[in-house]
Amino acid sequence: MALSATPRWAGRLVVVQALKRKRCARCRRGPLSLLVLTDGAPWCLVCADLGHLVFLPRGDTALTRRSREESALSAVVVRFNRRKSRYERQGVLVEEAALARAEARCLADAEARRRRRARDARRRAAEDERFVAAFAAEILRLFPGCPAERARAIAAHAAVRGSGRVGRSAAGRALTEGAVISAVVAGVRHVDTPYDQLLMRGVAWNEARRRIAPTVERVLRAWQGAGEEDAG
């Protein structure tokens, strides 16, 4: 059977890391660690004409990209994540000679790529520093009674890259009032109330939030009220 019958991942051939013990529907070899679904049936890599490829785990972006560039035939390796109910990429299969050529290319310019990564890291750090400062300033504008060190701590926590926290959302990056207030509320909840202890004792998060809501409101009003007193 032709490889065109193999499922594809963003236009590429797909190989699946097996979670269950399966045998090849064609040659009965097994159990299979890697398989190709052909018309819904599991085939081993040899029967799917992919047996000569070698596995390159994900993690090195440059090596993966160059290996695929060098390889006339390649496939994406995926595994099903039961908790998230989706397939996730684990690496690629490429020709062994292509991997060797890609490794040689990466070794040749490793120092240049290291310097570029260092420059990118410094640039991101500077951007993050400016963003945290702007976020903290907006906190102090909305809550003038908030201690400056707390405002910065809340801003830094909310703005961690890749955290999924409110500071990294579109609203957070735009410094919208709602996003800033949400970050402050979260900061107060975890620092100024027994919220974390309640969760550790097995209290459901919605019940824990209900219990600590008066304390959160009291702190927010105190931080807001300082500005009103100064204006008066």
From TrEMBL:
<dbReference type="Pfam" id="PF10056">
    <property type="entry name" value="DUF2293"/>
</dbReference>
<protein>
    <recommendedName>
        <fullName>DUF2293 domain-containing protein</fullName>
    </recommendedName>
</protein>
<dbReference type="InterPro" id="IPR018744">
    <property type="entry name" value="DUF2293"/>
</dbReference>
<feature type="domain" description="DUF2293">
    <location>
        <begin position="139"/>
        <end position="224"/>
    </location>
</feature>
